[in-house]
Automatic annotation (TrEMBL):
<feature type="domain" description="Nucleoside phosphorylase">
    <location>
        <begin position="61"/>
        <end position="314"/>
    </location>
</feature>
<protein>
    <recommendedName>
        <fullName>Purine nucleoside phosphorylase</fullName>
        <ecNumber>2.4.2.1</ecNumber>
    </recommendedName>
</protein>
<dbReference type="GO" id="GO:0009116">
    <property type="term" value="P:nucleoside metabolic process"/>
</dbReference>
<comment type="similarity">
    <text>Belongs to the PNP/MTAP phosphorylase family.</text>
</comment>
<keyword id="KW-0328">Glycosyltransferase</keyword>
<feature type="binding site">
    <location>
        <position position="99"/>
    </location>
    <ligand>
        <name>phosphate</name>
    </ligand>
</feature>
<dbReference type="GO" id="GO:0004731">
    <property type="term" value="F:purine-nucleoside phosphorylase activity"/>
</dbReference>
<dbReference type="GO" id="GO:0005737">
    <property type="term" value="C:cytoplasm"/>
</dbReference>
<feature type="binding site">
    <location>
        <position position="278"/>
    </location>
    <ligand>
        <name>a purine D-ribonucleoside</name>
    </ligand>
</feature>
<comment type="function">
    <text>Catalyzes the phosphorolytic breakdown of the N-glycosidic bond in the beta-(deoxy)ribonucleoside molecules, with the formation of the corresponding free purine bases and pentose-1-phosphate. Preferentially acts on 6-oxopurine nucleosides including inosine and guanosine.</text>
</comment>
<dbReference type="InterPro" id="IPR011270">
    <property type="entry name" value="Pur_Nuc_Pase_Ino/Guo-sp"/>
</dbReference>
<dbReference type="InterPro" id="IPR000845">
    <property type="entry name" value="Nucleoside_phosphorylase_d"/>
</dbReference>
<dbReference type="InterPro" id="IPR035994">
    <property type="entry name" value="Nucleoside_phosphorylase_sf"/>
</dbReference>
<feature type="binding site">
    <location>
        <position position="236"/>
    </location>
    <ligand>
        <name>a purine D-ribonucleoside</name>
    </ligand>
</feature>
<feature type="binding site">
    <location>
        <begin position="119"/>
        <end position="121"/>
    </location>
    <ligand>
        <name>phosphate</name>
    </ligand>
</feature>
<comment type="function">
    <text>The purine nucleoside phosphorylases catalyze the phosphorolytic breakdown of the N-glycosidic bond in the beta-(deoxy)ribonucleoside molecules, with the formation of the corresponding free purine bases and pentose-1-phosphate.</text>
</comment>
<feature type="binding site">
    <location>
        <position position="255"/>
    </location>
    <ligand>
        <name>phosphate</name>
    </ligand>
</feature>
Length: 317
């Protein structure tokens, strides 16, 4: 059932979901409703895209989403136009340290790009469709290739802090539990109801990363593996880490997968990369725990190398 609410300045359409039907003796049936935020339509997303393009002369075909502490890449974009998320109508806000919250248009290695200096996470309270909303905005701006980076904990004990893991696949814990950015009405203009994601991470781009990594002398700290997305914001328990490793995960983080699913749904090719910022705790006798400061610190130390790799790849597209 749709309910129309007059709020300044707009008429808002709110979806009312019947949640509980309770029979009351002699007095019929009581129906309780809960409210869910309406998703933006194709046209609403087009408006966000048009707004952004009206703020820049750049017309990128490549987008980069920067992970925690990895936003430095956007700072080296030349001839840049930066738009704060707070200026973009109907766009979420970044709330996590290490995510500046700016959309940066400009040139990287001579190619026109747009960088998200800060992404959205489900644990900030955003539904998955909203976490993935920027990707649909990218699609309508003409983006064909998406680079996603993230900070992650290593489940694979042969990895080291500071390693770069090329993502070859993912396991979505929210997805397996029934949550997905594509849940709900399917907008056919973006893509099909049942998109395949078995080829989510483009193999040619991964090969390019391996070749460039070799050229740059990064082989000793370049890995390839499976990223597991968890909900956060609490880090994983020891038992959870053991489970995720048994399931085939190499790294664990709280992001990226919603954006990747939305990108593949609308035909954008994807390259993903995790920076191992910490080893997860797998031992009950360990005296260490994971913390976000450590995550950001490692990001700072390896950021230059990640920037070099991404820039060189973009230069060769
Ligand atoms: O995935 P990104 O945004 O890089 O950040 C990672 O770092 C934060 C935890 O330290 C979480 O947000 C996790 O997902």
């Amino acid at each position: 059932m749709w309910l129309y609410l007059r709020t300044a300045p707009a008429l808002r359409r709110v979806w009312l979901r019947p949640t509980v039907f309770q029979a009351t003796r002699g007095r019929g049936v009581k129906v309780y409703f809960s409210m869910a935020e309406a998703r933006p339509s194709y046209e609403d997303i087009q408006k966000i895209s048009d707004f952004l393009l009206s703020k820049t002369k750049h017309r990128p075909k490549i987008a980069v989403i920067c992970g925690s502490g990895l936003g430095g890449l956007a700072d080296v974009v030349e001839d840049q136009n930066a738009i704060d998320y707070t200026e973009i109508p109907n766009f979420p806000r970044s709330t996590v340290p290490g995510h500046k919250g700016r959309m940066v248009f400009g040139l990287l290695a001579g190619k026109t790009v747009v960088c998200m200096q800060g992404r959205f996470h489900p644990y900030e309270g955003y539904p998955l469709w909203k976490v993935a909303l920027p990707v649909r905005v990218f699609k309508l701006m003409g983006i064909e290739t998406l680079f996603v980076t993230n900070a992650a904990g290593a489940l694979n004990s042969s990895f080291n802090v500071g390693d770069i893991m090329l993502m070859k696949d993912h396991i979505s814990m929210p997805g397996l539990a029934g949550d997905n950015p594509l849940k709900g009405h399917n907008e056919d203009r973006f893509g099909p109801r049942f998109p395949a994601v078995s080829d989510a991470y483009n193999s040619e781009l991964r090969q390019l990363a391996r070749d460039i990594g070799k050229e740059l002398g990064f082989e000793s700290f370049m890995q390839e593996g499976v990223y597991v997305q968890v909900g956060g914001p609490s880090y994983e328990t020891i038992a959870e880490c053991k489970l995720l490793r048994m399931l085939g995960g190499d790294c664990v983080g709280m992001s990226t997968v919603p954006e990747v699913i939305a990108a593949r749904h609308c035909g954008i090719r994807v390259f993903g990369m995790s920076l191992v910022t910490n080893m997860v705790v797998m031992d009950y006798d360990a005296k260490v725990t994971v913390n976000h400061e450590e995550v950001l610190e490692t990001g700072k130390r390896r950021a230059q190398d990640m920037q070099k790799l991404v820039s060189k790849m973009i230069g060769q597209l």
